[in-house]
Amino acid sequence: MVDWRTKTPVAILIYKRPSTTEKVFEAIRQAKPSKLLVVANAPRPDKPGEAEQCAAARAIIEQVDWDCEVLKNYADQHLNCKDRIASGLNWIFENAERAIVFEDDCVPHPTFFQFCDEVLERYQDDERVMAISGTRPNVGTLRTDYSYYFSRYNLYWGWASWRRAWKHYDADMKLWPNIRDEDWLFDILGDRRAVEDWRWRLQRTYEGVEISTWDDQCTLSYWIHNGLCIVPKVNLVSNIGFGLDSAHTKDKFDWRANVPTEAIQFPLQHPEFVVRDARADAIMQREYFERIAQQKTFVEKVRRKIRRTQKLWEEFRAQKYQGGFLEFMQQVVKES
Question: What's the whole-model pTM score?
Answer without folding.
Answer: 0.86
